[in-house]
């Protein structure tokens, strides 16, 4: 990344402003979470670009990795807007490769779910009553918990909502497969419908 440093006056104070290209996420009440490109950055504000932006005066939160700052939209025009931060940030920290907090949360969630699932499975096997249907139900429960954990992260939900929908399809297919093996009424029909949804998702890559 090549950064060009110039100066700008913000609130009567001359700030160092760095022209760059950074990926970040903007949170605002009227738009929700939106992926944005940070085009220049100073301790007191930023210029960003996005397809959808909040209106002038809106309260916002800008996040990049584990970093975040609150503020307001100073102006908005087309696909660009200027942000004024509530407090000063470290431009150097924001320019550094972000700590992948989302990935860390995923890793923790998978680790926790794997541990809890293993404990449950060993316990049921010890009782000598586990069946193939039970195995599918356990897998479905783990997938459901994983999907809920990931969906609770606003940034992940915006960036990977398509993949989260696929996790939901897989979860439902596991549940329906377990039900079909146990010959529960309606499970076979439900599984056929879900299989069609899964095949469409594979073909289009958008479901």
Automatic annotation (TrEMBL):
It comes from the Bacteria. SUPFAM superfamilies: PilZ domain-like (SSF141371). This is PilZ domain-containing protein. The lineage of its organism: Bacteria, Pseudomonadati, Pseudomonadota, Alphaproteobacteria, Sphingomonadales.
